[in-house]
Specification:
single chain, about 350 residues, alpha+beta, Immunoglobulin-like, 3 domains, five-stranded mixed β-sheet, four-stranded antiparallel β-sheet, 4 helices, 17 strands, WxLIP_PGBD, DUF916 and DUF3324 domain-containing protein, membrane, Ig-like_fold
Length: about 350
Amino acid sequence: MILKNHKLRLLIGFAFFSFLFALFVPTVHATPGPGVAVKPNYPSTQIQNSGSFFFKTKPGEPQTITVDLANLANYSQTLDIEPTTAYTSKDGAITYKPGKMPSDRTLKYKMRNLVKEKKQTVTLGANQTKKVSFTVNPPKKDYKGIILGALYIKTESKNDNVNANNVNLNNKVALVMPLMIKSQDKKVNPKLTVPKIAPNKSGAQTIIDTTLANERPTTIKGMEVKDRIYRKGNPKKTLAKNHQYQLSMAPNSNFKMQNDFGKNALLPGTYHLSLQAHDMNGNHWKIEKDFNVSIKDSVIYNNNNWWWIALLVALFLIILLLLYLIYRQKRKQKKLLNDRTKYVGD
């Protein structure tokens, strides 16, 4: 009898937990989406078959490249294909997304300017494949390193695009076909620099923007960066620090790495950045750089240190008052001198 009651309790418990599982675990339904595939057709100058374009160029000699675009969906799709220039995103990754990119003074050639066709639009029927051509016009002179970009392929979407199952097909798909060229076989090593350091704000938080720049026409991959910021002359007290892994940078590009200043007051004066970095190819960098914080920067970017801001404003007003008093005193002295000269003359 005891055994039967035990089995009954187990059965009731199993049924109860089965009911809870069925109640709280949602059922997943498959939804059809836009499927697109792209395949590069390598030119005869292709260096390696890696799933993307990487070929050698001769000065001023155009090369035609083609890609096969396949619509894998059971409805027609319109694709926009646009050549872009590689740059480094704000998160420290190589990206090819079209639009405004951070400028870099060391970037000599932009891939999007070397491709003749600026944008092509192709409509593919259901399960249809088409070949699309682009012409790459390399620089008229030999160039060092690589020029990196991509063919950025994006599906157009329409809110009224509904299939036979009344499923709204307004999802967008973006594909990237990297495009890299070179004219020399000589290896180029990356060069990491810090061209600018400046205070800034992220919400209500004070930060220090450290601009990291790759000044050479080659990529940086698998980079680890460690840095710290302290007031010059007081290296024992770290005011901000950062440690980031697996960063990558496009040729001749830059991005801003942020240091959270925490609750530390951003006082006017000279600060120091101490930075060390290395990448997966064995390159190492050590950068030591001073930067200044002005009274104006301290007032604008301080992290809610209102007492310090009030002190700075009061100091600024005192300086203005002193300048005014000095100006008035000099003006009074000048007037007295003019009056004496006039009296002597009479």
